[in-house]
Amino acid sequence: LLNRDKLFNLIRSNGFTNAYREHTHKLISIKYHQLDYIFFKDCSIQNVQVLKQPFSDHLPILFDVDFLV
């Protein structure tokens, strides 16, 4: 948890935002946690979806990016 807090502080201090804060990985088939992130700056992230896959412990993330012009 402390390393993740340091990561988020670094990201925020450089003007980035995390678009998603839910579980994306199943640890040892017993506990879900967030392993994957969507950091963005100068764009918009929408329609975030985490797909359940029975053949993998990683859950793929799909999302739309709108670039600000």
On the 0-100 scale, what is the average pLDDT? 80
The parts where pLDDT drops under 50 for at least 5 residues are none
What fraction of the residues are assigned to beta strands by DSSP? Answer: 35-45%
Tally of alpha and pi helices: 1
> C-alpha Rg, in Å?
14 Å
- Give the overall form: flat
Strand order of the largest sheet: 1-4
How would a textbook summarize the main sheet? 2 strands, antiparallel
Q: What is the string of SSEs from the N terminus onward? A: HEEEEEE
Helix content: 10-25%
How many β strands by DSSP? Answer: 6
Structural class: alpha+beta
Give the N-to-C terminal Cα separation: 36 Å
Question: How would you describe this structure to a colleague?
Answer:
Strands 1-4 form a two-stranded antiparallel sheet. A two-stranded antiparallel sheet has the order 2-3. The protein has a two-stranded antiparallel sheet with strand order 5-6. The model has no long low-confidence stretch (mean pLDDT 80). The protein starts with a helix and ends with a strand. A hairpin with a 3-residue loop joins strand 2 and strand 3. It is of the alpha+beta class. It contains one helix and six strands. Helix content is 17%, strand content 36%.
SSE blueprint and pairings:
Layout (H helix, E strand, L loop, with lengths): L1 H12 L3 E2 L6 E3 L3 E3 L5 E2 L2 E8 L10 E7 L2
Antiparallel strand pairs: 1-4, 2-3, 5-6
